[in-house]
Amino acid sequence: MIKPLNDYVLLEKASGEKKVGSIILTSEKKTANLGTIVALGEGKKDDKGVNHPIEGLKAGDKVVYREYSGTDYEENDKKYLLIKAEDILAVVE
Known about the structure:
The protein has 93 residues and is mainly β. The chain is 4% helix and 49% strand.
């Protein structure tokens, strides 16, 4: 597993697939921008070297993120997205 640096967040992408018997149903459009936070970086340092941690987010949170942002990463058949914390728009409660 990779560890995000600075103000980056690692999300596990929502699959959008549902298996019924041997048929896989997809609803990719509905879950395209949903993910679950797996890990967070330590935060962003300012010009004086003071670290500002990422606020309002924690591992396990389900979030909505900005479309077309981040870098895709795949490990053990799971899809992840490495994204800037500022590209996370909302926490799903």
